[in-house]
Design goal:
alpha+beta; 5-stranded antiparallel beta sheet; globular; disordered N terminus
Length: about 400
Amino acid sequence: MDTSAQHHLATATNSATCSDVGGPASAAYGAAKGSALADTLEGEKLSKLLVTNHLRVSFEKIQAVFARNLGVSVTAAKRLEPGGMVNAVYFVSAADAEYVLRLSGTRDERWRSAKTLHEVACYKLLAQHGVKVPKVLCYADTADELGLEYIVMERAPGKMLGELYPTLSIGDKEIVVRNIGAVVAKMRSSIRFPQICGFSLDKTGAVVPAPVLELGPDAVFSTCLDFVKAQMRCSLADLAAKADPRWTPYLPRLASYAASLSDTDVPEAASLVFTHSDLNCENVMVCPKTLEVTLLDMEWAGMRPSYWEDIDDLELDDEENGLPEDRVLRLLAESGYHMPAASDETQIAALRRPIDHTCGMLHHSTWFKGRQAESDEFVAELISELEDLLKDHPSS
């Protein structure tokens, strides 16, 4: 047996009181979360582009993993199609429970082992601080046992926020807003580390700081400036390796831009807080009966500047039916979560603009290679924004 597969890992959250388990559409493990480009593609087309289509295991292997590590007899397993950017998910059924088997088989050496350990550590850390997340039951951070790294979790109760929220009454929506605010506020306030970092597990299973997952083995940062520069360097290196002729002319200019960034361009944060970094309607589950909130998908989580992420992407306001934005903001504040002030939003823009441009190019190279007709509009918009960015920076 793979010694990295842990039996009944102690990441228990509050006992689930909601028996309504969402179907595949509400599993919050859909395709290409976090990429706006995914919205322009549809099932079959998207499936051909995803890097996780190779992440498949036989039913017999799934049965063996569950029997060996959990003593569970599996009756069915269904792969969620088409998969995600770096993960694949199976919904696994037993006689009296539902599980999620999350596979990781990235070809990026930076993520080997570290990605699985990071996700498990984040779930464990959040559970220790009372944030409701799925219970991790076992995992393997090598491919020795299953041929792929994996995490087995209890299936989160409820439905995806984006699916359930539009069907709720205004009163129930207000409860959900408060619950989301309370969960995010607890996540941000109760976990403290002095550096921008990710997390891992030591040999005893304790959670320890670790490099920011996507930025390499030395990616722990004391300043926001160093963090932003590292993100740009990483994206530019990935772009250079892809050798996309559309973006090659911009790489030296963006590298110069990144090298010349200063404290004025990238302000420091008032504090560092635990941040989900992909907080969207697919990664928040809500129980229809209790309206309790569960957070999913921690691969991008970690310590970040306090203004790095807000919850605008959750689109909680419903002006037409009597829940305007100012009411949502008051409910969030009452729950302990405060949206960034206008000055903080300026700081967010200062941090994210260069990163979003380099990542935008990287996503284009991944999603639209060989699909010029479908990508022309996106390319034109991105080039225009890049020219504006570089024009505003004299050193480039």
